[in-house]
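Table S2 (continued). Query chain:
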Amino acid sequence: MSQLNLNEFKERADKAEREIEELCRIFSSLDKSKLSADPEALAALKKENQILKEKLTALEKEKSVQQSSPETSDNKDEEDEVNPWDVKASSEKGVDYEKLIVKFGSSSIDDALLSRLESVIKRPVHHLIKRGIFFSHRDLGFILDQVEKGNKFFLYTGRGPSSEAMHLGHLIPFMFTKWLQDVFDVPLVIQLTDDEKFLWKDFKMEECQRLGWENVKDIIALGFDVNKTFIFQDLTYMGQCSNFYQNVIKIQKCVTYNQVKGIFGFDDSSPIGKIGFPAVQAAPSFSSSFPFIFGSNTKVPCLIPCAIDQDPYFRMTRDVAPRIGYLKPALLHSTFFPALQGAQTKMSASDANSSIFLTDTPKQIKTKINKYAFSGGQATVEEHKEKGGNCDVDISFQYLKFFLEDDAKLEKIRADYSSGELLSGFLKKELIDILTPMVLAHQEKRKAVTDDMIREFMTPRKLNC
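Corresponding output:
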């Protein structure tokens, strides 16, 4: 973050603090018996703004130290680039997620929060959150408060259908979302942003809709319960539900062109469809967008598991929510599933060799891993046995963190590879042996998904939870 941007954020935070103080003064002078507003709302807003200011101060101090350090002065302009359309890391280890937490203003998932989550669900947490793959959150504590009070929430996640076949990276939020749904027994809505792909890609509208339909097969194959899950494509659902469209318009009215440019990087040449789209991705955060599920209850809390590159959409959503009378959505952020070539970029559906696709054959899986998976090993066997491998950059090990559920086995592999006892070839074989049966099993489940099953998942209806 540049010094100019940092100063701008500080000025905005200072201004917001002054405005909150003035609102508190006005609020305290009014007859509260005539007000329907929650008297704790302003205090919560004030606290949230103070946390933002503290994180900005920490970021400013960190940047000052970096600029004065001789080791970093030559590379001070190198920053990780993370947005909904592109991810580039300045280090071969991948994105610096601790810095990203500070930059985005989210909170880390620490041991205390993990312990509380386990206490609430009365079972061990999923390995994806225990290992820090889901590493950041917004208001997860509020969701757990609701659960402890006996209140329900709903889950919302999504997929942008840019290819007929999904890759392993696309599975991560859905795998974790299914676990959350099973644990908490709550409704789930899944958005297919076929409209986004039409606006951003050189696709015909019919192709975007077809790709969305194909991707739904992969999602259903993961085992979601049709009685608890509603899946929708924007290009269809927008015309089916006036409440959804009304929420889109409410959100669009609250966000200026300058704000959306600042958040998403749009410029004067961007089509107006792109400028208006963020409101479409924001709208499912509110229970009123699904009246057939929630009836007249517009205050059902929402939890969104997603990769952290989607956070800009929901920072905007959280800013707008109180202004239109809705609850801010809570979020759980995941790290990125790295490309085979290394952790400096995420996997891409447009590059067949950067990814293991769910349609790949056993031979393709083996070839891709052996040929393209970046190794953290040394140049020679002798040097590797002397110095050991680097698990932080070795892609085979990084993939095992996602898919090898046995903690003890993963730790032994890490220790043996780091000491030089295990060679890179062992890690690649271990990964091949795990991914091949997993992908083949998924393909069989996908074959069993019929068009009638898809229509049932995508029919607006009351859910049984």
